[in-house]
Design goal:
Number of helices: 22
Strand order of the largest sheet: 11-12-10-13-14-9-15
Strand content: 15-25%
Number of domains: 5
CATH class of the largest domain: Alpha Beta
CATH architecture of the largest domain: 3-Layer(aba) Sandwich
CATH superfamily of the largest domain: P-loop containing nucleotide triphosphate hydrolases
Radius of gyration: 30 Å
Bound molecules: adenosine-5'-diphosphate, zinc ion
CATH topology of the largest domain: Rossmann fold
Amino acid sequence: MLAGMPKYARVLLDDSGGRAFDYEIPEALSPAVGSRVRVPVRTRTLLGTVIGLSETTEAGGVRPISELVGNEPELSPQLIRLAEWMADYYCCPIEAAMRTVLPNVIRKAEVGHKVRLVARLARDMSAEEIAALDAKAPRQADVVVALRDAGKPMHVTELCEACGVAHQTVQAMAKKGLLVVESEKVDRDPCARDEFVASGKLELNEEQIAVFKRVAEGVDAVCAAEQGSAAGGKREVKPVLLHGVTGSGKTEIYLQAIDRVLERGFSAILLVPEISLTPQTVERFKSRFAATHHEVAVLHSHLSDGERHDEWHRIRSGRARIVIGARSAVFAPVGRLGIIIVDEEHENSYKQEETPRYHGRDIAVLRGHLEKCAVLLGSATPSLESFHNAATGKYELLRLTLRVDDQKMPFIRIVDMRLEAKKSSPILSDPLRTAIESRLAKSEQTILFLNRRGFSTTLLCGKCGFVAECPNCSVALTFHRGAGRIVCHICGHIAVAPGKCPSCKDPGIKYTGIGTEKVEDAVAQTFPKAVVRRMDADAMQRRDAYRETLGAFRTGKIDILVGTQMIAKGLHFPNVTLVGIVNADMGLHIPDFRASERTFQLLTQVAGRAGRGDVEGEVVVQSYTPFHPAIQFARHHDFDGFFEQEIEWREKMNQPPFTHFVLITIRSPHEGRAQLSAETLHRRMKESLPPGVTLGDFAPAPLEKSHGNFRWHIALRSRAVLKLSRALRGVLDRLTLPEDVFVVVDVDAYQLM
Ligand code: ADP
Ligand code: ZN
């Protein structure tokens, strides 16, 4: 390569507002794209990432790179490309995108590997030599024998314990030349305490075979590249959307697809929603791959810096070839990527609600395209976006329509609460109460679902009409009876629950509305002999509470489990034959074009918890709008029917997936400045946005005030989202706002409040 040697590197500096400069490459260094470097900036030295290499530069006064951090580039060119794309698409600073791709603990290069001391014999010792040593120093002879028997180096602490000697003895033996003591890297393994029993593959049923065949063909096509050749040799295949009803065996397909990828010498990423990243899920994967001695790395938001550091390096070095994690695991530094699987792809938690506001599933598809690897999206209730992509041929659609072992779909009964609530209670209608009774009689288990925690939702004075509102947010405070507090679910503001009206001092203060705490209370009163437990963010504050409660439920120690969406996802309990949905309308009447879709998904997912064993399951759905399409289609397990009706409406209303929805939030603790800034921004956009963009009015957000900030919204829609993002960036760059006004751009927004 004559012309090939680059002389300059473009370096994106950390924490500098996205500035990149050219630096000269000293002869001794050979950085690559993705290398971390230290470079001089004025009088200081800063960390940065090499994002490009070139033979020429137009910049003047170019200085040399000071130092290369680490032997290998921390990021692949594909991941850098992904960060650049993310900044462009989501209209966020490149800095923020890079921070997401490269975790802080790696960027800062401050946390190192954990080391421990190991000892080994310096040389072979004959039996005579050992006997001679034994006569002089029997303890030392013990150490020698222990190491000889072990046949490999031993951890010094363990060695000392085994032989009953002090550390000094080992050090002294090292000095004498009998032993070699050295330090060794060890991983901080977040699952170190658990043991995994290897489990084998299941024999697939007919439907699974057909699905697996297609998935395997895709995997084989992308992994066909010769051993050792880079991504260049791979062929691109379409992403696959796997629509499989709950309990149809999708996870088994994931397991076998990953197995195939490993066999071909490639690696895999599996994304699961944070909420279902339970020990149960992780265990299932670790056990399966324990059989083939493949290491699984787990990434989630509760890892310590040290654990994250080690998991990251385990992946980067290629030791762990399977990565399971929540949304940010889509950026895992996996080398030879064969497949990215997104389980429950419809889940909203894949969307990050802070900058960069990326969607993990969309990034998975893009990364799949960049790395030419297979992408498999799975769900029992695919998002309208993904299903539309399948309908238009962008994705390949595969289906599993039957539950494994021919279990029937649960029978769903809708209870019209407009009639029931009058004669019974708004929490337990007669049909639901009777259904629970019969389960208790048969020692079967019940799940009761309500997506709102707390005891009651509003504290209302019947006399003067006073409602306890949060001082920082425009919402009513929720009464938590157990804690005797009223709490804001937006900002966490907390106050002692008053005994009488704070306004007119009337003692007849009322708590209205229902939360999980009240459901638990009502159920315990109705069924005094039953064991009732609650599972929501309040009850699960202790670290192990979640694990314990699930364990107790699985072993049948709990009869009725009351909970929020925490219990809606992916849990398997064969003895649960009844699921009660206390109020199915909760999510329907909110100003969000996805309200129907979410309700349909939630009902279907919750219903899927019923009847996973030998007994057929039943679901009782309580609703004040029993004929709402989302409820009716869910009742008939009719995804296609729901999709057809909903997609027609979305098209008519020019909503996603037919357009991209961009939501701009302007907020300020100062009411007038928030409004004025929204007005100004709106005017500027009107002047300079490209054609094809629908610009909505500026209006107060549904949640007008939050954390003491006044909030305004401007909604935009466009088919060409990149054009819109770039135009927006232009407008925002030219706009100067008062210091206390913040603007947030959310591309493909999910959170519309
Ligand atoms: P899903 O992910 O679609 O909800 P799972 O993969 O979790 O479904 O499967 C549901 C249950 O059926 C699990 O307990 C799983 O072990 C079992 N299962 C899946 N496939 C098979 C099969 N081919 N034969 C026997 N059991 C299976
Ligand atoms: Zn608040």
